[in-house]
Design a protein that fits this description.
Length: 318
């Protein structure tokens, strides 16, 4: 998954473009203004929302985890989905459950370091979103019975962490946390803030989270499994598109402001993408041609690369 692989993804993986077009039709997704969902972004053009507009969109796109009924999902998980498939599904579920908790914890210093009040207000809504996503996964795990012997949120997080690979820890617990801790101590360091937003919004949310979300949603829809999970996860994905739209808006503004910030984006991408590439690979995969949720490694990485390429073109860096 490299930022400069647009020719491979656009020409060699036409299915990815088709999938993005289909995703854009889901309710409220295109409204987020994420360039990955706009075909014009292939030409470096996109209709980006401003920070106040993104806040107002957040108000219109509210949803409640408590409205989801997981009774059918419990039956599917325990009676329809085979044990081996449940084990394979656990990597994607674990990465999201732990990932949502990690980004909830790490967003505060980014919010406080943002230069304008409008930016800080929007990022405050994102903290609320990320906490809701943790709550969504906790309810799913608890009511479906995903883990035995884990009786509260802390226990579920500890147990599900065992399903992750080493690259996940490197990206979240070392690379992201290390930078955010430095930013908390020096909130006036705008170049470091640009690095944090690039890592958080472009790589972790944009390349990893949304890739996994869309393939997991599509697979469950094809298999007619876990309907409440799919409903909630679509809401999570819509939130993430809105978050990424903020990231693209912010990085576009910063790239225009100073060459130093353009270089910070490029530097962060070069450092983070090789690690992110490994995060996409499940820990039980022994070969490079693994398949998960009906998609091959090449298809998964091509999708992530095309999303990233479209966003970078809009920022002006592709």
């Amino acid at each position: 998954m490299e930022a400069g692989t647009e020719s491979t993804t656009a020409d060699g993986a036409g299915g990815a473009a088709s999938t993005l077009s289909e995703i854009a039709q889901r309710k409220g997704f295109l409204e987020t203004s994420d360039p990955a969902l706009q075909e014009s972004a292939d030409r470096g053009e996109a209709n980006l929302l401003g920070y106040t507009e993104l806040y107002e969109l957040w108000e219109r796109q509210q949803w409640r985890t408590q409205d989801l009924d997981f009774s059918r999902d419990r039956t599917d998980w325990n009676e329809r989905i085979e044990p081996e498939e449940r084990l394979q599904r656990m990597y994607g579920l674990s990465a999201f459950f732990i990932g949502e908790q990690r980004v909830t914890d790490e967003l505060g210093p980014i919010m406080r370091a943002a230069p304008t009040e409008e930016q800080r207000i929007f990022l405050s809504t994102q903290i609320a979103d990320e906490a809701r996503h943790v709550r969504f996964f906790n309810r799913f795990y608890q009511e479906v019975g995903v883990l035995e012997g884990a009786d509260d949120l802390a226990a579920r997080l500890r147990t599900t962490k065992e399903h992750l690979n080493d690259a996940f820890a490197e990206l979240f617990d070392v690379m992201l946390k290390g930078r955010v801790d430095r930013l908390a101590a020096a909130p006036e360091d705008t170049e470091l803030l640009v690095e944090c937003v690039t890592l958080y919004h472009m790589v972790i949310e944009g390349a990893l989270a949304l890739t996994g979300q869309h393939f997991i949603i599509e697979y469950n829809e094809e298999q007619n499994t876990l309907p409440a999970f799919v409903e909630g996860f679509q809401n999570v994905a819509r939130d993430e598109h809105r978050h990424i739209a903020f990231g693209v808006r912010f990085l576009t503004d910063m790239a225009k402001e100073d060459q130093r910030y353009r270089e910070a984006i490029q530097r962060m991408m070069a450092e983070a993408l090789p690690i992110a590439d490994q995060v996409l690979d499940p820990p039980w995969a022994q070969e490079d041609d693994w398949e998960l949720f009906g998609y091959s490694r090449d298809e998964t990485h091509a999708f992530a690369a095309q999303c990233l390429s479209r966003r970078l073109k809009v920022i002006g860096l592709a």
